[in-house]
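#onboarding

Welcome to the new folks! Below is a worked example of what a typical request in this channel looks like: someone posts a single protein sequence, and someone else replies with the predicted structure as tokens. Don't worry about understanding the tokens yet, we'll cover that in week two.

Example request:
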Amino acid sequence: MEDFNFKSINQVQSNSKHEDKICPHCLRIFECKVGSISLCQCTKVNLSLAEREYLATQYTDCLCYQCMEILSFEYKMNLSYKSISWRF
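Example response:
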């Protein structure tokens, strides 16, 4: 019985390192694993420094990884449009 209680306490402590957040872009709930950053969903997305700065100018809190991918693509598309020469 003591072993069970010990496991329950460990589970509560490990869960306290994670928190449910609401993505400010899409309003979906996702789990932020700031206590285990290598397991966090945000590590699925590779962002350049410029892309991170672009996101930081728009949002002050964590985004879900789907929105990070979408906004990263949006940033790249905006750069592409700016580089197009519109000479006729």
